[in-house]
Amino acid sequence: MSLETLQDSQTSEHPIDVMESLATAHEWPCERGETQNDMNVCIKGHYCDFHIAVNWRPDLHGLHLACVLDIRILENKRADICTLLALINEQLFLGHFDLWSVDGTILFRNTIMVSGMGLSEMQCFELINNATETCERFFPAFQYMLWANQSAQDALNTCMFETKGEA
Question: For 56-85, b where at least 16 C-beta lie within 10 A, e where not — what string?
């Protein structure tokens, strides 16, 4: 069977419908956006709530996720935070952190390309799970830098520390 035949024989659910189904199953508060191609999800994290905007771009076959951290960076700290963002982004395999210039919001962004075969709930879960785990891991670095006046490298080092073994 050729790829074209496979694509024709399967009906693909709209990616936002798949994401909404996942959010409902996990009892994450969610709402559809102004169009059929976007929605918002809120997930409770350890340090803060994560507000996640999900957008489907049918022209690019891409499902984009932007996870906003509940933190605002003042103008006088933005250059230092950009240094930290660059150091953190070097550590990431999937996605990246950005500083939103309009209001100083830090967000984690990632996109998954969706083939003609459609999108599974598991793929959506992994996209959200990667975002929330990454935000949880690096949130303290932003706090250390802002509230404890640590350097970008020291803040990153604190988050990169991994415990091995058991006590």
Answer: beeeeeebbbbbbbeeebeeebeebbebbb
| Alpha carbon separation from 167 to 7, 26, 140, 157 (Å, rounded) | 53, 33, 24, 22
**CA distances in angstroms from 83 to 25, 46, 76, 92, 166, listed in the order given:** 38, 25, 13, 15, 34
Contact residues for 106 (Cβ-Cβ < 8 A; gap 6+): 68, 69, 71, 73, 81, 85, 97, 98, 99, 100, 142
CA 143/CA 141 separation, integer angstroms: 5
Q: What is the CB neighbour count within 10 angstroms for residue 22? A: 20
Helix or strand holding residue 126 (H, E): helix 121-147
Q: What is the tens place of the pLDDT at every residue in 40-77?
A: 999 999 988 999 999 999 999 999 999 999 888 888 88
| pLDDT greater than 60 at residue 3 | no
Q: For 135-158, how does the pLDDT look when each residue is reduced to its tens digit (9 = 90+)?
A: 999 999 999 988 888 888 998 988
- DSSP letters, 68-89, are EEEEE--GGGHHHHHHHHHHHH
Q: 74 is written with which tokens? A: 């003042």
pTM: 0.84
